[in-house]
């Protein structure tokens, strides 16, 4: 009887540990930001497709499934592993994000999700391969030594073009050709501004731990200006493709001006952007679908 009880208790304990590990990975993947990678896939598919049937290509579904959760586990897992010491003083880790403390499930999860990215190659056209490879390389190099782009001002911002690579991959996979250069430039500039804006709340913690970023180098006021310039240039690039796209992206430079000149704390405004990005992304996607349906 004792042996059976011990076996049941051991089984329950293993089950509880597994649930706790998966729960931690879920929080680590930043569900609030899932659409930062998966959203561009939807936009890319909407503009790469020329018929309704192409919207449901297996390659498009595979890319969306990967970039919705596994890619986020990969990206933020690498980040958290190599930011362990820094994050000990990061207030965002106290409630809204997970704090990595050496949990053994994280490195294998990062390796697995990185491998899943490589496993996409046989299932998508060759035109999409450079974008998937670029995401995996930049996703690791942003946080991991020896390059660790996130600790070099300007390179930390520029390397965050990785966020538009899922969209470019989806466009290429569905259209069979590369996305328009202006769309890539506009998306890259948007990602640069988004990343640097998100670093503003971390300026003081980063300075205290000796981390150099574009935001710590510029200071809060000039970082607002930098983000505004990136987003304005992004809106101009998209506007050159279609004025309606430029109008949608104009939300960002106008928004940063409103935040910079208001009394709203930036660490509060920062958490508005997942909703803003979702609305703008939905508008862009609907625009692409409108063209498919009505020409």
UniProtKB/TrEMBL annotation:
A Pfam family (short name) is UbiA
Q: Which UniProt keywords apply?
A: Membrane, Transferase, Transmembrane, Transmembrane helix
Gene3D superfamilies attached here?
Answer: UbiA prenyltransferase
What's its membrane topology?
A: Multi-pass membrane protein
Answer whether the UniProt record assigns the keyword Transferase to this protein. yes
The superkingdom of the source organism is Archaea
Q: Recorded GO terms, molecular function?
A: transferase activity, transferring alkyl or aryl (other than methyl) groups
TM ranges:
33-53, 59-78, 106-123, 129-147, 168-191, 248-266, 272-293
**Which compartments does it reside in?**
Cell membrane
GO cellular-component terms in the record?
Answer: plasma membrane
Protein name, please? Answer: Prenyltransferase
Q: Which organism is this entry from?
A: Natronococcus jeotgali DSM 18795
């Amino acid at each position: 009887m004792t042996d059976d009880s011990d076996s049941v208790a051991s089984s329950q304990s293993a089950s509880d540990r597994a649930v706790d590990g998966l729960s931690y990975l879920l929080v680590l993947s930043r569900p609030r930001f899932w659409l930062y990678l998966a959203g561009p896939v939807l936009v890319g598919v909407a503009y790469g497709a020329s018929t309704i049937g192409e919207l449901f290509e297996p390659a498009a579904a595979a890319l969306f499934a990967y970039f919705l959760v596994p890619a986020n586990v990969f990206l933020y897992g690498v980040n958290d592993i190599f930011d362990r010491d820094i994050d000990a003083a990061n207030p965002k880790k106290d409630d809204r994000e997970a704090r990595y403390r050496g949990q053994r499930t994280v490195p294998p999860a990062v390796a697995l999700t990185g491998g899943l990215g490589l496993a996409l190659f046989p299932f998508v056209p060759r035109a999409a391969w450079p974008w998937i490879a670029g995401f995996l390389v930049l996703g690791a190099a942003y946080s991991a030594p020896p390059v660790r782009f996130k600790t070099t001002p300007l390179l930390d911002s520029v390397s965050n073009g990785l966020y538009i690579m899922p969209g470019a991959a989806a466009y290429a996979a569905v259209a069979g050709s590369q996305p328009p250069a202006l769309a890539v430039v506009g998306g890259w500039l948007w990602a640069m501004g988004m990343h640097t804006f998100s670093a503003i709340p971390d300026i003081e913690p980063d300075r205290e731990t000796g981390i150099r970023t574009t935001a710590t180098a510029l200071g809060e006021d000039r970082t607002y200006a930098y983000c505004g310039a990136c987003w304005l240039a992004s809106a101009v690039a998209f506007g050159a493709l279609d004025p309606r796209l430029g109008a949608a992206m104009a939300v960002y430079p106008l928004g940063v001006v409103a935040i910079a000149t208001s009394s709203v704390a930036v660490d509060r405004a920062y958490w508005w952007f997942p909703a803003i990005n979702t609305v703008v992304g939905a508008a862009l996607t609907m625009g692409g679908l409108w063209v498919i349906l009505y020409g």
